[in-house]
Amino acid sequence: MKKERILGIAFILILVPVLLFVLISSFAHSSLSLDTEKPIDVSHSWTCSIEGKDAPRSLDLPAVLNDIPKNTTIQLTRVLPKANISSPTLFFKTEEHRVKVLFNGSTIYEYSPKARSFGSSPGSAIHLVHLPDNFDNGYIKIILTSPYKQFSGILQQVYLGNRNSHILMLLDQDLLPFALAIAILFEGFVLAFIYVSLRYSKIRNAGILYLAFFSFLAGLWIMCERMLSLLFVPDPVFILNLALISLYCLPIPLLLFIQRTYCPKNPNPLVVLSWAYFGFLLASTLLQLFNLVDYVLVLPVFHALTTVTIAVIGWLGFHEVKSGNKSIKAFFYACTVFGFFILTDILLYYFASVPKMSSHSFFQIGMLGFILVTGSSLGENLFHLREIHIRNDLLLSLAYTDGLTRLKNRRSFDDMIEALNSHLDQEDAIHLIILDINNLKTVNDKLGHSQGDCLILEGVKLLRETLGKLGEIYRIGGDEFCVIIRGMEEEAINDTLSELFEKIDRFNSTAHMFSISIAYGMAAYQKGVDTALNSVFVRADRAMYVCKDNQKQIRVIG
């Protein structure tokens, strides 16, 4: 059973997302293999002029120009090559730049987002610039300005082709990361489903919910990081802010997950880091709202916090494993690999030949592996807890349920009476009906205990069909039962009792090894008289014995 459970969890949490990733990837490559004109790379032999500097220079793209002040104009110019292209289009990406494109001295394209109530960012954008059909040997000029110094000198490649070929090229570059994001989002939905299903089983573990939030935020961030997202939501500033907010929120559910799930002996560093990220997110949001510092400018602070977090988690994990905490072992190894991938991407962001243009590929792959390993381990533990909880519920149910009739037993009845006694003044009407199945001992002695059990079961069946519609039935003795009825008029109860005895008569009119006879007594709670239902029970019990004596006299007379 354990092996089957582990296999099922591995299939849901690991194999399904991986298969999803492979299928989407395969479809992407097959769909992009259609015959189409490939874009021409025109990234070489540009002439670059920088505002405030006299000497233009030749430049090949991509490139990074150092020490370019913010809002400095950079002009890239060149003659377009001869090419047979239908609906010619120029394609390039920008990192936080405003753009203006001129062809033979005339403006043909301009990208300058309207001023927002907060923030200066123009976002990371894709540009599809339509050219005249007779563009051969035309003179193209691209003018770039950025409100940020760290992005001012970043220049990316330029391609010449038609619109479809550019979009297919973009799909080829970004569809695999998109597939990865979908797999991570799917993992988040699976974890959320597991959390909800466990809640229905009355197992409350917020750790799996925190991991689901982590997966959602990670998938959302990866999607927004890709330029492909601009084909669906053509607002670079919105996409940028959504990506950064998702990224800045990511560590908080992860740290909460570690605290709740693995309960380290010294959780204080995790608590401090959680509040540090919360404070960072709050402060950066306020700075953005008041147009003081944009989200994108505080990314180095986030990177510093992330580096500290990796060191702290590694230190805590090492000490937990060393102290014998085996439950954290797999998680510690997953964190170690994940942390290595994160640090690799942070280093590439600052020290690669073209910095700030990293695709975060190491981070994204490491994140998927981390979520899969951690989710699988957590899911296996939680399903094990669920099985224990189900067994405990079964034992609890047996403790409160009569084994023969499956009615609630005397223990359950006493608990219900105690609960009602605690708020009797809030009840409009309570009736207790005590019933006794006659002749059980005679049937047991003459026909055997199996027939005695049949007598009980047939009597309970009639009680369920009638009085069961009015309230809960309890077996409080071998042949004695009690019905608690709340908020019902006595007249309706008497009608149902008449229905019960009609059914008893119909049962007895057919051939059976025994006949059914039931004595009953009913009493109602009286406000101002009864301080507890125990006195009501005593009155109903006395009434039942009076009924039982009357039935004996009728049988004797008969």
Tell me about this structure.
The chain is of the alpha+beta class and 558 residues long. It has 3 domains: 2-33 and 172-393, Rhopdopsin 7-helix transmembrane proteins (Up-down Bundle), CATH 1.20.1070; 41-166, Sandwich (Jelly Rolls); 410-557, 2-Layer Sandwich (Alpha-Beta Plaits). It is built from 15 helices and 16 strands. The chain has a 6-stranded antiparallel beta sheet, with no helix packed on it. The protein has a 4-stranded antiparallel beta sheet with strand order 1-12-6-9. Helix 9 (329-351) packs antiparallel against helix 10. The longest helix has 40 residues, at 361-400. The two termini are 63 Å apart. Mean pLDDT is 82; it is low at 1-15 and 27-35.
Q: Brief overview, please?
A:
This protein is α+β, with helices and mostly antiparallel strands. Helices cover 55% and strands 15% of the residues.
End-to-end separation: 63 Å
Count of discrete structural domains:
3
Low-pLDDT segments, ≥5 res: 1-15, 27-35
CATH class of the largest domain: Mainly Alpha
Strand content: 15-25%
Q: What structural class should be given to the helix and strand makeup? A: alpha+beta
The counted number of beta strands is 16
Give the integer mean of the pLDDT values. 82
Q: Which CATH-level-2 architecture of the largest domain?
A: Up-down Bundle
Rough shape?
Answer: elongated
Helix proportion range:
55-70%
Strand order of the largest sheet: 3-2-5-10-7-8
Main sheet, how many strands, which sense, barrel?
Answer: 6 strands, antiparallel
* Rg: 38 Å
In CATH, the topology of the largest domain is named: Rhopdopsin 7-helix transmembrane proteins
- The number of helices is 15
